[in-house]
TrEMBL record:
Domain of life: Bacteria
Start and end residues of each Peptidase S26 domain: 22-174
Key word Hydrolase present: yes
Protein name: Signal peptidase I
Keywords for the protein's UniProt record, in alphabetical order: Hydrolase, Membrane, Protease, Transmembrane, Transmembrane helix
Transmembrane segments: 21-40
GO molecular function: serine-type endopeptidase activity
Any one of the GO BP annotations: signal peptide processing
GO cellular component, one term: membrane
PANTHER family found in the cross-reference section: CHLOROPLAST PROCESSING PEPTIDASE (PTHR43390:SF1), SIGNAL PEPTIDASE I (PTHR43390)
Native source organism of the sequence: Rhodanobacter denitrificans
Pfam families in alphabetical order: Peptidase_S26
Family the UniProt entry places it in: Belongs to the peptidase S26 family.
Record keyword Transmembrane present: yes
Amino acid sequence: MRHAVPIPSLRVHPRARSPRFLVMLLVGIAALVCAAQYALRHYRVGYSQESEQSIGSAWTLVRLKTGPVPVGAYGVFVVDGRVSRFSAGTRFVKKIVGGPGDLVEVKATGTWVNGQLVAGPLDILPVLHQQATAFERTLILGRGEYFAVGTRPHSYDSRYWGPVRAGQFIGQATLL
């Protein structure tokens, strides 16, 4: 024979039944839904082993936006046909170190923007089966041109394939 176990009644606080409480609850839920929609429309969390090797972080928070990214920030852009070894449309995350009007000098021993060292030697030449002379150059970035580099050794970046155009940017990244 089983004994009946009393089930405690669920008591609802009197204020929970009030119209004001219900309105506040609905407003709170609506605010959360709006915030979630905004975040999903404007941000993405990304993971890339290439980014780990190139910029030191495999995880990034990307704020989706078109147009250029400020110098000093991490830009997310799609590569074009100039970038061998990757399909056009592949997304890259690189640090933007130069913008329109900046003087860029790429040499075998390092890369300088306006006299400041921004990247080390051209260290992936053996992988590309090229000599340094294929990439050494001095240029002034034109309107809508940006110079992007990885922040770690062995990065495949603007030193090898030239400036990123403003129209290639799809967002700005924050390293996680």
